Amino acid sequence: MEHLPEPWLTEAASAAQQQGAGNLLRVVLIVMVVGCVLTAWFLLRGYKRDE
């Protein structure tokens, strides 16, 4: 029984090779910025004083 890859998967792989790492880099940068913002919020919320 031979397993052949799906046609959409091979098209996506060839498109990714042609385009390069632009989308991956963009996603990584967005995740890093969102992670930094959430980390800063989590750490800085402990300094709030309720007086």
**Approximate helicity band:** over 70%
What is the rounded distance between the termini?
A: 72 Å
Q: How are helices and strands ordered from N to C?
A: HH
Shape: elongated
Q: Low-confidence runs (pLDDT<50, min 5 residues)?
A: none
Strand proportion, as a percent range, falls in under 5%
Instruction: Report the count of strand segments.
Output: 0
- Rounded radius of gyration (Å): 21 Å
Keywords: Membrane, Transmembrane, Transmembrane helix
Transmembrane segments: 24-44
Write the layout of secondary structure elements.
Layout: H1 7-19, H2 22-44
What is the compact description of this entry?
The protein has 51 residues and is mostly helical. It has helices at 7-19, 22-44.
What does this structure look like?
Keywords: Membrane, Transmembrane, Transmembrane helix. The chain crosses the membrane at residues 24-44. By secondary structure, the chain is mostly helical. It contains two helices and no strands. The radius of gyration is 21 Å and the shape is elongated. The termini are far apart. The mean pLDDT is 79.
Key attributes of the depicted protein:
mainly alpha; elongated
